[in-house]
Design goal:
It is a multi-pass membrane protein. The protein is an all-alpha fold and about 150 residues long. The chain contains six helices and no strands. The radius of gyration is 17 Å and the shape is globular.
Length: about 150
């Protein structure tokens, strides 16, 4: 997702023809999605199982990206942004809860350090790949090549 941030901005400005204030509002809608998802997670924390949290997030985050990538106007883009960040809050909660329940406390710090290093390497590689794809092909297709 980090690799797609600049693609999202370029897509919103170049393809959807949004000005800076409209794009800023779009980003605010994404923030509202995170907040809404987090509130639902907090309210139903005792009822939602880890596999449901991760499954919902893993399925609906890419659907949100696809809605955004195929959007032709602000409302469609906003719907995609809201859905992807809403679902992302479920995925993050599920994955972090899974880690906390399954990794011994004694090695948790080392595990997250190694995991963070691997994650950072993949972020750099995916950002590079998406940037190259955007230069070689259309922005909309470059964003979709991530999937």
């Amino acid at each position: 997702m980090t690799g797609l941030d600049s693609m999202e901005a370029a897509f919103a400005v170049e393809v959807l023809l949004l000005d800076e204030s409209a794009y800023g509002f779009l980003v605010s809608i994404a923030g509202a999605g995170i907040v809404a998802g987090s509130l639902i997670n907090a309210l139903f924390a005792k009822l939602l199982k880890i596999n449901v949290l991760m499954g919902f997030g893993v399925i609906f985050t890419p659907i949100g990206y696809l809605i955004f990538a195929f959007s032709t106007n602000f409302m469609a883009a906003a719907t995609g942004f809201f859905l992807l960040t809403f679902a992302l809050s479920f995925a993050n909660t599920g994955f972090l809860t899974f880690y906390q329940n399954n990794i011994p406390v004694e090695i948790m710090g080392r595990f997250f350090t190694v995991f963070g290093l691997v994650e950072a390497a993949f972020i750099v590689l995916f950002t590079l790949a998406i940037g190259i794809a955007a230069e070689l092909i259309e922005i909309r297709l470059g964003a979709l090549s991530y999937f």
